[in-house]
Design brief:
Radius of gyration: 21 Å
Structural class: mainly alpha
Number of strands: 0
Mean pLDDT: 81
Order of helices and strands: HHHHHH
Number of helices: 6
Low-confidence stretches: 17-22
Largest sheet: none
Strand content: under 5%
């Protein structure tokens, strides 16, 4: 028993835990009227980090006044083709917040945010900024 306890005390220290949560993203708001096509990630730039950075240009909580209202709009089953630019940005913001809350930093399927970005790009290109 003594040898076992001595061995336990002499064991190698445990390595520091690896934190899977990405660094917090600061929301840097850009209004719909100030949003330009250059602000929107291009297909070749649509990495997780770039999508998150763009999603953080809109604060859905502040805009809608509450978490509940923001997510009610952001997860609405309403067809994206009839959503306003603000509703699209809210949907992308909600995706961003879910990723941040879950600590997800390596997402294989970026289909949903890419579809939202394509609709946002279309609205900005047409000048449909609500």
């Amino acid at each position: 028993m003594k040898n076992r306890l001595v061995g336990w005390f002499r064991r190698a220290p445990r390595p520091e835990p690896v934190h899977l949560h990405p660094a917090p993203i600061e929301i840097r708001e850009v209004s719909n009227t100030d949003l330009s096509e250059e602000d929107i990630p291009r297909v070749t730039e649509e990495t997780y980090e770039r999508l998150i950075a763009f999603a953080a240009t809109f604060d859905g909580y502040r805009h809608w006044g509450s978490f509940e209202k923001c997510f009610a709009v952001g997860v609405s089953p309403k067809d994206r083709s009839v959503r306003t630019l603000t509703e699209l940005r809210t949907e992308l913001f909600c995706w961003f917040r879910v990723c941040a809350h879950d600590g997800t930093s390596d997402i294989d399927d970026l289909t949903q945010p890419r579809q939202i970005i394509a609709e946002i790009r279309d609205r900005v290109k047409r000048g449909a900024v609500d």
